[in-house]
Amino acid sequence: MDELIDILDTQGNYISKRLMKSEVHKKGLFHPTVHIWFYNKNGEILIQQRAASKETHPLLWDVSVAGHIGAGENIELSAIREISEEIGLNVLEADLIKVGVFKSIKTLRDDFIDCEFHHTYICELKVPLGYLKKQESEVKALALLPLSIYLKELQLNSNSKKYVDHDLLYFQAIVKAIENQL
């Protein structure tokens, strides 16, 4: 879905310019996104398999919930909106624990350069997996994996291409933040 989003400079600052998401990707302009990683007290992490119809990384496993921040939208409210849309869960702003902001540049095609600043959160999943309602247009499947198994599979990802590729420092920050909550 195309939507109006804010443009950022290379340091992640808003520059008072907005464009449609499709144009932003075509031009390789920086823009803000939210990533929310859910975990439970059993040391498991919620991962999402992206829908087959997704323009980027179809059918690969990725962050629990992610999305673009709409133009002028509050970052935390964007995270709450994306959680509700993608997995049908209502959370409060107080439930979100900010891990940090991570710069990411990925050239997916000549006409699709994804330059993002991921505002990244963790959140405790307090309901069983079966309670979640996935948004069919975005999410093919949801799974809970023990954090240790997830980390081992990430190390093998260069061969299997099962997961969306993210920077190692990004994953290390997520894991450390979750371990600090367990």
From TrEMBL:
Domain Nudix hydrolase per the UniProt entry, residue ranges: 29-169
Highest taxon of the lineage: Bacteria
Pfam families: NUDIX (PF00293)
Coiled-coil residue spans: none
InterPro entries in UniProt: NUDIX_hydrolase-like_dom_sf, NUDIX_hydrolase_dom
Protein's recorded name: NUDIX domain-containing protein
Organism listed in the record: Sediminicola arcticus
